[in-house]
Amino acid sequence: MVDVKALVTQAQNGNVQAFEQLVLLYQDRLYGLCHRLAGNHTDAQDLAQEAFVRAYRALGKFRQEADFGTYLHRIAVNLWLSYRKRNHNEFSLDDPVLTTEGELLRQVADNNQQPEQVLENAEFQLLVREALAVLPKEHRAVLVLREMESLSYEEIAATLGVAPGTVKSRLNRARNALKKTLRRMAAKKGFELPVTE
To answer: What is the pTM of this model?
Structure first.
């Protein structure tokens, strides 16, 4: 088992290899969070890289009161919340392909599912991504951290720098907003979502 606190202390004392080990330990999880927030590979890579750079620069101020992963998550979420949309003339291989029939996700079908089920799942995943993209950033952040990253209320509170009660109320509002947005978007596309209350 890796002693993260020892690695952080070593990195704070100027040991670059210790920080490199921290990057290796957390890079996949941080990238996953960034991808869910940013919605595409290119921005997720940029966001994760900038989060590590900022963490390294501020490492001397990190008091190790929180988990290092929570510290990285907080930096990434704050960067993303303050991120100004830039002109996106590039495209990502993770983005859906636009066709005359609509959008298609670049995915390999699971051999255990029927083609209709694979298509329905892909359409629903695309609908959820589209709905998340139009939610306010505060709603999107709390949903991603709870539902996709499976963080506890306390971890989310530490990441966002708010009280756990605030996390619960934001999460409730975010879930309701997502449901409404999903229903509205599904209706525009001509299909109904099951009613869950």
So the answer is: 0.60
